[in-house]
Amino acid sequence: MNRVSINLKSAVTALFVFLWLSAPAMSDVVFPRGQLAFETTAGERITIDVEWALTAEQRARGLMERPELPDRTGMLFDFGETRMVTMWMANTPASLDMIFIDETGRIVRIAERTTPLSESIVSSSEPIRYALEIRGGHAKELGLDITARLVLPLGLPQ
Length: 158
Prior knowledge:
Blueprint: H1 3-26, E1 33-39, E2 45-53, H2 56-61, E3 73-83, E4 86-87, E5 96-101, E6 107-111, E7 122-123, E8 128-135, H3 138-142, E9 149-150
Parallel strand pairs: 2-3
Antiparallel strand pairs: 1-2, 1-9, 3-8, 4-7, 5-6, 5-8
């Protein structure tokens, strides 16, 4: 086993222990709400009602234990800086589309129809600032692809 896989296993194990130990406290996590928009190359504006995951506690909780998401709703994770991001679906029973977005609003990757309850790592593939999670398959239904852009500035809740 090489050093990279040992480090990855250690990181995943540490995250699992953190989430397990903080599960009761995380059930009380509150998310501010707002709206964001994407513009397609055809000039269409797509709006989505989101919960904002701005703090480490909010990002750790995410959409865990939610059985479904209504259309045009989701959760936007703001990492506060541009960096590589990995996510997973542990404790998330609904399939999601994960839309990875850089600091300029460019969609760099869409991980479509992620596997519910999976501990497999989903990577942004390149440094990003934001990740948007919506119902699995909904990105395609809305016409979101890597040519659409997130409208900035976001007007994040304070």
